[in-house]
Every structure is written in structure tokens, then in C-alpha cells.
Design a protein that fits this description.
Bound molecules: tryptophan
Largest sheet: 3 strands, parallel
Distance between the termini: 38 Å
Strand order of the largest sheet: 1-2-3
Radius of gyration: 22 Å
Number of strands: 5
Structural class: mainly alpha
Order of helices and strands: EHEHHEHHHHHEHEHHHHH
Number of domains: 2
């Protein structure tokens, strides 16, 4: 069985894009692989959340993962800061991570632009922490989006460098886990880009959103003046609504509105009403389960503790051997 690891920064609630792009696939993936899912709370400190927000978001993500069907009896689900071995490996990897390569990381350069007043060492060494997350378990597959591919490449560099430096064949070089055809990309509601990519929450439908919020967001989604020619190509904003509809509505419903569009008889208001109701039908059981889980702190704590123990089992073995290899050993 392949060891697969996935991490998510706890920055807010999860939305339909997270669900269809990742979570839904994780639920299948956990049955076929030895999966580690962790909540990267250390990583989110690079943007200085308040302690209240950090704590609340860690709980939210945990509840949302469980609600979506991540099974703590099958997979290992844990919180990054519960695994001190990661922090130790991060420190050790930093000794062999060079300023030049860290500065060249696209994500770092982006952050210099987006938060010029907070260019901290954690941001610079974000890729070494991510590498530590992955190789502490000797994971071989990592499901990542385009924006994380460079980090995975750097992880391979750090793993290879360690092996070469100490002349060992210790760390495997992890590669991307590819969902292939199963990968559904959910666009945002603002007529551009991915869901969740804008600063305001209005571009995304969160799993926890109440029906009336969902209706409001969908009714406000960007559209155009409507088709004027038969079988006209759809503009991006309309294509986006259809993409979301394909994920949550029945094929018949999608075909029905597609035909109306092609005949120039579509009324976007009607399509949006249908879409909102289908999203609500889809998210309601998830939302109810999330609320139930968030109210059961004892259970969440139990899951986190059990996850930390399982993760520790895997990580402590690695760090023990790493110390040996480096020469940190009993006198
Ligand atoms: N950097 C990832 C993101 O922002 C989160 C992350 C941290 C991660 N450590 C990881 C992802 C290890 C995969 C593996 O999406």
C-alpha cells in the first residue's frame, strides 16, 4: 500500500471547491492507500492569525473532514502541531536548505508582494516545513494542486540532498498523486478563477453556509445579458454556473438548461434558483453533520488524540533513524 499524505492550512471553512477538488477524492483514496491527512496549523502562523481564529479554524477543518467522510479508523487524521517530530525534522532540513533556493520559490515571491510588512523566516522556510511534513512519514504520494507543485519538487530536492550528503538511501522522493479524470474543478461565483480564490467569501459556497446564504450568493453570481444566437459559445461566467451545476444537479437538469441556453430561451434567474436548491440539497446533510461534530468536542478531541498517536508511531521511527544517520546519538 502506498503512503499518501495531504495537508491543508486551516484558514477558514471549506467550500464546494475543496469538496469536489479534494475531499471527495480523499474519501475514496483512504480505502486504497495508507493515508495521512493533517491540518497544517504551523504553516498558517506565517500569516499571523489571532489565536482565536487559528483554534476555531483547526476545529472547523477537522469537523469538515470528518463530515465529508474521512474515517479516522481507516486513515490517520492529525494536527501538525501535535507531531513535534515534524518540527525537529524541519530544523534539521533547514541546515541543508539554501537561502538562494528558498528565495526563488514562487510562493515566497508572491508573499513578498502580498504581505510586504510580514516577510518572516517562516515564510522563507515554508517549503522545508512542508518537506518535513511529507518525509517524516516517508510518504510517496502527495495530492497537490498546481500551486504546490514547486513545493513538492523542493521536497524531492531536500530528500535527495539528505540521501546524498549522508550516503544513504533513506528518504523516498515523493510524487504527485493524480486524481486524473476524477478531478473536478469548481470555479468561483465572480465570473473568474477558482472558488475560494478571492478575499471576500462571496466567490465561494461553504459547506457550512445556510440555505438562505446559498440562495443569496447564487442569485448574485455574475452572468451576462444572455445568448443572442443559437448554440452560441458560453462566456466564462455562464460556463462556470454550468460547471457547478454539473457537480450538484442531475444530468437531466443540466441538459434542460443547456438546451434552453442553446435555444436562447434561458432565464438565468430560473437556472440560478434551480442551482441554489440543488446545492442546498447537496450540502444540507454535510452541514448538519458538521454542526453535530462541532458540538461534540469530546469526540473531536478523541479523534485528534488518536490521530496524533498514529502519526507519532510513524514519525518517531523516522526521526530516530535520521538522528542516527546525522550522528546525533548517545555518547
Ligand atoms: N502548502 C499546502 C497548501 O497551502 C499545505 C501543506 C502544508 C501541505 N504541508 C503540506 C500539503 C504537506 C501537502 C503536503 O495547500
Amino acid at each position: 500500500m502506498e503512503k499518501v499524505l495531504s495537508g491543508i492550512r486551516p484558514t477558514g471553512n471549506l467550500h464546494l471547491g475543496n469538496y469536489f477538488g479534494a475531499l471527495q477524492n480523499f474519501v475514496k483514496m483512504q480505502k486504497e492507500n495508507n493515508c495521512f491527512f493533517f491540518i497544517a496549523d504551523y504553516h498558517s502562523l506565517t500569516t499571523h492569525p489571532t489565536s482565536h481564529n487559528l483554534h476555531a479554524n483547526v476545529k472547523n477543518v477537522l469537523a469538515e473532514y470528518l463530515a465529508a467522510g474521512i474515517d479516522p479508523e481507516i486513515a490517520t487524521i492529525y494536527i501538525q502541531s501535535d507531531l513535534p517530530e515534524t518540527a525537529e525534522l524541519y530544523l534539521l532540513l533547514n541546515m541543508n536548505a539554501y537561502l538562494g533556493e528558498l528565495e526563488r520559490a514562487t510562493s515566497f515571491k508572491d508573499k513578498i508582494r502580498s504581505q510586504p510588512n510580514n516577510v518572516n523566516a517562516g515564510l522563507l522556510t515554508y517549503p522545508t516545513l512542508m518537506a518535513a511534513d511529507i518525509i517524516i512519514h516517508k510518504a510517496t504520494k502527495v495530492p497537490v494542486g498546481k500551486d504546490q507543485e514547486q513545493h513538492l519538487e523542493m521536497t524531492r530536492t531536500f530528500a535527495r540532498r539528505f540521501n546524498r550528503m549522508y550516503n544513504v538511501d533513506f528518504f523516498p522522493e515523493p510524487v504527485a498523486y493524480n486524481f486524473g479524470k476524477n478531478l473536478i474543478k469548481i470555479p468561483g461565483l465572480d465570473g473568474s478563477g477558482k472558488m475560494g480564490k478571492s478575499e471576500t467569501g462571496n466567490n465561494a459556497i461553504f459547506l457550512i453556509d445556510e440555505p438562505k446564504v446559498i440562495r443569496k450568493k447564487i442569485m448574485r453570481a455574475v452572468t451576462d445579458a444572455g445568448p443572442t444566437k443559437m448554440n452560441q459559445k458560453k462566456p466564462v461566467s455562464i460556463e462556470n454556473l454550468f460547471s457547478i451545476m454539473k457537480a450538484v444537479s442531475s444530468p437531466d437538469t443540466v441538459a434542460y438548461f443547456d438546451e434552453l441556453y442553446n435555444n436562447c430561451n434561458i432565464r438565468y434567474g430560473d437556472m440560478k434558483k434551480q442551482l441554489a436548491e440543488d446545492i442546498i440539497k447537496f450540502t444540507t446533510p454535510l452541514r448538519n453533520r458538521i454542526i453535530e461534530l462541532l458540538a461534540d468536542n469530546d469526540y473531536l478531541r478523541k479523534v485528534a488524540k488518536q490521530g496524533a498517536e498514529k502519526a507519532h508511531e510513524s514519525a518517531s521511527k523516522t526521526i530516530k533513524e535520521v538522528r542516527e544517520i546525522i550522528g546525533i546519538k548517545a555518547i
